[in-house]
Design brief:
By secondary structure, the protein is an alpha/beta fold. Helices cover about 25% and strands about 30% of the residues. The longest helix is centred in the last third of the chain and has 20 residues, at about 500-520.
Length: about 625
């Protein structure tokens, strides 16, 4: 066999290094690259120069600089971003991710772990097992990594003492044994000196196990993705002309062949695979990891985001499910707030309906919570706007993972791993009603609509809304006013004024308003509703033209001067927590249909402005 053929036959191992700050992750990867002779002469010359400027190894080359490519990383001596490096040995090829140790970069570490088969968790022999060690171990377990190398690094600084090594291994095993890893392999090493990395140490005759590279070459982490049921998330409907219609994507798991019977998971429509098309010609089969285009024997309605599966082994399809969520944003997760979920190639609006518990990374205990903050992990119930196809993450990492996206900033805010469907969602169906919405509108004699009054406390929302409803009633318009204070005496009496309770407050009011609109009424709501995301959530419950946002724009100085209920005075004395405008923010509407500037209009004129807007839109 020639060298090129041997290279092609090598297996590939993806692994990551993780652990606490300054435990030698970057140095270890630098050592692997250096000993594998995969450093070009100009690279070696560059890090030799940089070692004198940034290095921490005296006159020696600082191998960490091979990986810490960002200027900030070199100046601070830490890893910030995930750095991927490739190296090879005669027996195997490797892609290694160097992930940050700082807690604030836990989300970056999770990114590296999501595609890894094995994790090398480094522990500084001087410090032992730290909270970050446990955090990263738990995340590795949660993200489906089943093989761990416990690398006790800097053992040279502890005089190669076996007692230190054994104590650290025992401490880690007490925690690690709870995480259901398939294997945990401890190795004492010195990344800086090279001991037990690629060569056996002359200083640790007491250690009889493999070197790190020996273990990485031999560990069996061959994915069983091929043995799992066939899954094919459609990324693109390929229609270059009228004579060809194919569905392009990457096989997530299993094997598919022409003639196999398949189903579209969400719709249940079935067909048979006709061809497996690639740029190099048709294939007799496609396996997990293959990027192909499938054609079917029948014209079936399939779109980007659909999942193709065997008719006899279909994934779950549900609009409610439970999942672990790793929160990755500075702004906290709030149950009830709408997010966008990307699962496979599909984007679906979703809400966290309940946070069942948070997880204490140190003890793995569960405890009650109402929100998740940056780098926290919780177990949540989620509700999607449409049914989605998925497998439990433990069964299939490709089809059980998702990310959450902030719908306002488009930033990724969370990563999730689905555990199971909430079966109750499949047993709840809409009841057909004998009286239609059109009949209710005809009886009312006018169009239904929501007037959503928003503004600071004391801005005049309730006063203006009351005047509008009085006039509507006098004109024979069926209406109802939902006032914030009144609703909190009944429907929402169980809610406080924390951010998460405010979100739930508006969610409930939005749903009640929708019911009133279906009954044919003009609904007026008077709520501070301080967050744009929740006002958008309410708007999205209604058809175009049914939701009119009325921004009562009153400067906070005027609100404080009016202070009709004395609330601003109490808030300024610290007697009221989470008071909008003082200790909690108000996010002004950006595109309200109606803007009332109370500095220019009195309450009666403002009410007339709202009525004119309703008349112009044909509501009255």
């Amino acid at each position: 066999m020639d060298g090129s053929q041997a290279s092609e036959d090598k297996t590939l191992l993806r692994f990551l290094t993780c652990g606490s700050v300054d435990d030698g992750k970057s140095t270890l990867i630098g050592r692997l690259l250096y000993d594998s002779k995969l450093i070009y002469e100009d690279q070696l010359a560059a890090i030799t120069r940089d070692s004198a400027k940034y290095g921490t190894t005296g006159e020696d080359i600082d191998l960490a600089l091979l990986v810490d490519g960002l200027e900030a990383e070199r100046q601070q001596g830490i890893t910030i971003d995930v750095a991927y490096r490739f190296f090879t040995t005669p027996r195997r090829s490797f892609i290694v991710a160097d992930t940050p140790g700082h807690e604030q970069y836990t989300r970056n570490m999770a990114t590296g772990a999501s595609s890894a088969d094995l994790a090398v968790i480094l522990i500084d022999a001087r410090k032992g097992v730290l909270i970050q060690t446990k955090r990263h171990s738990y995340i590795c377990s949660l993200l489906g990594i089943r093989h761990i190398v416990l690398a006790v690094n800097k053992i040279d600084l502890m005089g190669f003492d076996p007692a230190v090594y054994e104590r650290i291994v025992a401490d880690y095993m007490t925690f690690g044994d709870k995480l259901n890893f398939a294997s945990i392999t401890p190795i004492p090493l010195s990344a800086k000196m090279g001991d037990n990395v690629t060569r056996r140490s002359d200083h640790m005759g007491w250690y009889k196990g493999p070197t790190l590279v020996e273990h990485l070459e031999e560990v069996d982490v061959e994915t069983d993705a091929v043995s799992k049921p066939f899954r094919f998330p459609v990324q693109w409907v390929n229609r270059p002309n009228l004579d060809f219609r194919g569905f392009s994507g990457t096989v997530a798991s299993g094997i598919v062949k022409p003639g196999d019977k398949i189903a579209v998971a969400a719709s249940g429509k079935t067909s048979t695979v006709a061809r497996i098309v690639t740029a190099d010609g048709d294939l007799a089969e496609a396996r997990a990891g293959d990027a192909v285009t499938l054609t079917l024997a029948d014209e079936v309605d399939i779109a980007r985001g659909d999942v193709l599966a065997p008719t006899t082994a279909r994934p779950d399809v549900a609009d409610q499910f439970a999942a672990h969520v790793l929160w990755m944003a500075e702004e906290a997760l709030l149950p009830g707030r709408p997010y966008l979920m990307k699962i496979g190639a599909s984007y679906v609006p979703v809400k966290v309906t309940a946070l069942k518990h948070k997880i204490d990374i140190d003890t793995l205990d569960h405890f009650a919570a109402k929100t998740l903050t940056l780098n926290e992990i919780g177990f949540c119930n989620l509700s999607a706007s449409n049914p989605v196809a998925f497998d439990a993450y433990d069964d299939n990492r490709e089809t059980g993972a998702f990310i959450l996206i902030d719908r306002y900033t488009n930033a990724t805010v969370g990563a999730g791993m689905i555990s199971f469907a909430l079966r109750r969602s499949a047993n709840i169906h809409r009841q057909d009603l004998l009286v239609s919405r059109a009949e209710r509108e005809e009886l009312s004699g006018h169009k239904p609509v929501v007037l959503w009054f928003t503004g600071l406390s004391g801005s005049g929302k309730s006063t203006i809304a009351n005047l509008v409803e009085r006039e509507l009633h006098d004109r024979g318009i069926r209406s109802f006013l939902l006032d914030g204070d009144n609703v909190r005496h009944g429907l929402n009496r169980d809610l406080g004024f924390t951010d998460e309770d405010r979100v739930e407050n508006i969610r409930r009011v939005g749903e009640v308003s929708k019911l009133f609109v279906e009954a044919g009424l003009v609904v007026l709501t008077s709520f501070i509703s301080p967050f744009r995301a929740e006002r958008r959530m309410a708007r999205e419950l209604f058809a175009d033209g049914e939701f009119l946002e009325v921004f009562v724009d009153t400067p906070i100085e005027d609100c404080i001067a009016r202070d009709p209920k004395g609330l601003y005075a109490k808030a300024q004395r610290g007697e009221i927590a989470n008071f909008t405008g003082i200790t909690s923010p108000y996010e002004e509407p950006e595109n309200a249909e109606i803007v009332i500037k109370t500095a220019e209009l009195d309450a009666a004129a403002a009410a007339e402005r709202v009525l004119e807007a309703l008349q112009a839109r044909g509501v009255i």
